[in-house]
Design a protein that fits this description.
With 216 residues, the chain is mainly alpha-helical.
């Protein structure tokens, strides 16, 4: 599933993941919107607003924000998130629904946008006790993307010298001490989510755990 620039290859997958997330969050109470997400310091509502902001930023708006924030990328993210938060959880969700079929993006590969949608979707779902069975071919393609990329989030560097093997699909990569688990758990651990480490097995897990827990 290469990022070849053809919209029909990746965008429908992104749209499907966004639609599924919007459906999963329908009817969430205001109290639950305040649940801490897997992104440190952010609630599930704030992470959803971040997804909306990412799908609303053209390269020009992104660069304008970066300059405005004096190249402080974290400040830019916080600023854009606040723009999409709304007055309550219902408004945050409505704004997200408005970008489900958007093809607007900052200067990132479409696979990075798919990764953001799935990974942040799980940052939201897991603390809420919501489960989604993502299509295996989509998860496999995403894991393959992250194994070779440190763009936006360190993944390639985090798994260097380890052998990753999915237990529910064909994904496999690397050489060295084994880290085995579901494709989703491997993907989430690759992107630094400590909550998924307990779902992994193998003599490489302590190495990966140290790398995940020592991240800034």
């Amino acid at each position: 599933m290469p990022d070849s620039g053809v919209k029909t290859e990746v965008w429908p997958l992104i749209h499907a993941e966004r639609a599924a997330l919007a459906s999963d969050l329908a009817g969430l109470t205001e109290e639950r919107w305040g649940t801490p997400s897997l992104c440190e310091g952010l609630t599930v509502r704030e992470v959803l607003a971040h997804l909306t902001s990412s799908a609303s930023l053209t390269p020009l708006r992104w660069m304008t924000g970066v300059i405005r924030c004096r190249w402080d990328f974290d400040k830019q993210v916080a600023m854009r998130l606040a723009e999409q938060l709304g007055d309550d959880g219902a408004e945050t969700l409505e704004r997200f629904r408005g970008i489900v079929t958007s093809t607007t993006k900052p200067p990132l590969p479409k696979m990075a946008m798919l990764g953001e949608t799935i990974v942040h979707g799980e940052d939201i779902r897991r603390p809420l006790g919501i489960r989604r069975d993502h299509p295996m071919d989509v998860l496999t393609a995403l894991a393959g993307y992250y194994r070779g990329s440190d763009m936006v989030v360190v993944a390639k560097g985090r798994i260097g010298g380890l052998r990753l093997q999915a237990t529910d699909g064909p994904f496999a990569t690397g050489a060295g001490p084994l880290v085995a688990g579901t494709t989703l758990a491997l993907t989430m651990a690759m992107t630094g989510r400590a909550a998924y480490l307990a779902e992994l097995d193998g003599d490489g897990v302590p190495i990966l755990r140290k790398r995940v827990l020592s991240q800034d």
